[in-house]
Request: fold
Amino acid sequence: MGVINLLDKETSVRIAAGEVVENAASVIKELIENSIDAGAKKITVEIKEGGKSYIRVTDDGAGMAYDDALLCFERHATSKIRTAADIAGVYTMGFRGEALAAVASVAKVTLYTKRKEDKLGTETVVEGGAVRKHEESGQKDGTTMIVKDLFYNTPARKKFLRRDATETLYVSQMVEREALARPDISFTFIKDGVEKFFTDGSGDLLSAVTSIYGRQLADTLIKVDSDNGGVVVRGYICRPTAARATRDMQLFYVNRRYIKNKTLAAAVENGYSNELMTRRFPVCILSIEVSPTETDVNVSPSKTEIKFSENVPVFDSVYFAVKATLAGGYDKERFVMPESEPKNDFEKLINSVASLVTEEKPPKESGWDVESKSRWDGKLGEVFHEEPTIGGKPLKEVVSGAPAPKAPENESFIKTPAVVSAPEEKAAPAADYVIIGELFKSYLVVEQGDELLIIDKHAAHERILFEKLKKEAAPPASQLLLVPETVELSAERAGALSAFEKRLESYGFYCKYKDGAAVISGMPAGIDRADAEEALCEALDILAGGKGSDNAVNDRIYHSVACRAAVKAGVPLPREDRENLVKMLMEMPDIRYCPHGRPVMTVLKKSDLDLRFKRI
Ligand code: ADP
Ligand code: MG
Reply:
C-alpha cells in the first residue's frame, strides 16, 4: 500500500485557510475589503476578546441575493473576476474568491444580507465549513458577517493566537489603516462594547487622521500634494521636529491599498535629508497612485508587499514630493508651540507639599547612584525624587518666596558604583591613563600608553547604560515624579499601554491609562522630565510594533532608555563626571560601539602622529 493519501476537501480547505486566516486581524481585513468592494459607505467593525470569540463587520453595501449568500462560501466563488487578465489590476480589493470559504472552515460564521431590490434578505450559518442554516429572513439593506470562535476546530492554530490585548492591537492597527485608506468611507470601530474611533467618511484625510491618532499628532502634519505626471503623491508628512524613534507611523498606500515597502520609506527619509536628527523617522501617511500594470502587488499572500516595475520613477516622485513640501512655505507659524503653563498651580502645589510631608526626599542624583545604592540595600527598583518645580521654579522657592540654594556649578551627576558604595575603603588602582580634557563639548580625550583615545561621551555613556540594563535584566531604578506627567496618547499607544503596563514597569516606566492619556508617575532613572513624553511614547511604539523576539524588543527599549539617560553632546561635562565616565569605560574593554552601531571611540597611535610629522 502506498503512503500517499489524497486529502479530503475539508482538510485541503483548512490548510488553505492558513494562507488567508492567520488571526482575527486577517479575517477582518478580508471582510472589510469585501464590504468596500460591495460599495459600502459605512462600515462598522466590532470585536470581543481580540476577535477570538466574536467579530462583526456590518456594511451598507450592495448585499447578496439568496443564492449568492450560500455560494459565497464556496471556494473560488467570486463575483469579481471572470478572466485571468483582470488580476493585473489592484483596484479590486480581493480577488482570490476563497476568503469566505477559508474563514467559514475554521470558525462559526453567520451572514445576514439583503439587496435593496429584494423584499426579503437572507440568513446563512456555516460552521467549520458545514452549512447549518440558509433561509430567507427580514434584514436591512447591506451585509453583516459575524465570525465566532475562531479556530474552534483547529486547536493547533488556535494555540498560535496571542493574548487578547495583543490580538486587539493587531486588529486596531489594521482597522486604522483601512480607515485611513478610505477617508471617504465612514468607519466605526468597537472593542469589547466600547467605541474606539469613528471616522466621518467626509473624504478628508486629515479629519480621519485626527479621529484615529488624535489632534496632537494631526497638528504636526504638513500636506503633500504632488503630481509629476506619472505618479501622484498625496497625504501628510510631519514637521521634522515631530519625527519619531521608529518607523511604525509611516503608512503607505499604493492605489489605495496599504503597503510595506522599503523604497518608499527610504524616499521619504531622503526627502528630509539633514532636517532629521539621527535615529529619527518621520511620520507619514502617503497615498501613491501609479498605473496598476506597473506594480506587482501579489507577491505575498497578505498582499502588503509590493514591487514596482523599474520604469516607474516612484522613488524620485516620493522623494521630490517630500522635499518640495518641506522646502515650500508650509505654515511654519502653525508649529510654534505655545509656552506650556501648568494647568492648575494650586493643585500641583498642594500635591507636592503633601508628598514632601509624607516622603523623605533624598537629593537629586542620577540614576546611576540610585541604582547602585538600591542594590547595596538589596532592594531593586528603588525610587528617588526629582526636585519638585512649579511653573519652572523650584518648589522651595515658590513656597518660601526666596531663591532656592543653587547646586554647586560643577556638581557631578555620573558616579561609579565604587565611588558611591565605599569611597574611602578601597583606593582605586592607579589609572594607567590620563584624561587630557574635553573637545568641542562632545569628546573626551585620553592618553593611554602610546595611544590617544578620542571618546564620544554620549555614545560611550549610552553604551555603558545599555550594557547595564541588559545585564541586570531587573527593573532599572525608577525616579518618582512628584507631579505626575500627563501625556496624551493615540489609540495605538493607548492600546500598547494597557497591553504592556506591567512590562513597562520592568523598564522603569510607571504609568496608568486615564481618559486617553498616560499619567506617568515614574521614569527610568536618568531621564529628564522634559524627555518623559518622548521616552514613554518611544517605548510604547516599540512595544506596539512588537517586531522580533522579546529579547529584541527589550534591546530596542534599552537602547531608547540608554540614549535618553546618557549625557548629551554639546553640554560640557563637569570634571568629576568625565573621570567617572572614562573609568567606567576602561572597565568595559569590549565596548567599541554604541548600541546604535556608532563607534564609541577612535584611537590615534603615537606612531601615526610621528609619521604625520615625519619623525619616522
Ligand atoms: P473575493 O472577495 O475574492 O471575491 P470572498 O470569498 O471574499 O472572495 O467573497 C466571495 C464573494 O462573496 C464576493 O465575490 C462577493 O460577491 C460576495 N461578498 C462577500 N462579502 C460581501 C459583502 N460584504 N457584500 C456583498 N457581497 C459580498
Ligand atoms: Mg474577498
The CA atoms of residues 463 and 595 lie 6 Å apart. The chain has 21 helices and 25 strands. The chain has a mean pLDDT of 77.
